[in-house]
Amino acid sequence: MSSATYPVNGAGLGLRRTLMGPLADHPPEQVHFMEVAPENWIGVGGRFGRRLREFTERYPFVTHGLSLSLGGPAPLDEALVHKVRRFLDEHGIRFCTEHLSYCSDDGHLYDLMPIPFTESAVRHVAQRIRRTQDILERRIAVENVSYYAAPQQEMSEIEFINAVLEEADCDLLLDVNNIYVNSVNHGYDPEAFLDRVDPRRIAYLHVAGHYNEAEDLIVDTHGADVIDPVWDLLDRTYARFGVIPTLLERDFNIPPLPQLLEELDHILALQHRHGGTRVPVTEAGAEHG
């Protein structure tokens, strides 16, 4: 993709219910787009439903799904896909993403499990992505996930990702923190990973914090500040591919909004260093010709 085709621009923030009050009271200029998990909002009415509508009318939104289980062995939950489609249409969502993982079989596992890096898994998950895109009537992006084991591995992580993107003809939500986490846990060079990424398929980026369990084991938690090596990797990502819209994820241990805005300021400063321009909130989702 390019700046003319990215679904959003600038810096984004994952919308959490605890942030809705502070964000509504003092709308920050650093937030150009927002992201929600559709499963957390489908069917929600009342006060929270109305507040979500207020945000989706003010900001460009993307979604990051939790439950499609694109790599799972059980049949694709097409009923959920139809619900997601209605949610996207109802709120004018700019783009839809999911995890390149699975989280269910006969029931939900409540965790993101690694898909085996095999040729048969490529075909399996690509077919499910194509079916999802057909129902949604729009392209989706899948996210490179953190993983802690690689069962039945026949190819590298980036080879598997690229094969799925090609076979499914979908896009990539590139999570910079997950590249760093996996590079430490599995002993590979994160820049060599970036060398193999196809920039034409990147929809936007994620950055987040994590937890260091041991010197050679990092757990992807989204519960801490972004650390310097991840900021450095984001800087190198911009240097390699140009400025790409970037969203800050924070799922728990959520600090006061001003502290989150400091991290968004860091994203915007890196984008400016690489030629990005300040994006007014009202124009953040507009396409540029």
UniProtKB/TrEMBL annotation:
Pfam families: MbnB_TglH_ChrH. HAMAP family: UPF0276 (MF_00697). This is UPF0276 protein D6C00_04500. SUPFAM superfamilies: Xylose isomerase-like (SSF51658). Coiled coil: none annotated. It comes from the Bacteria. InterPro entries: MbnB/TglH/ChrH, Xyl_isomerase-like_sf.
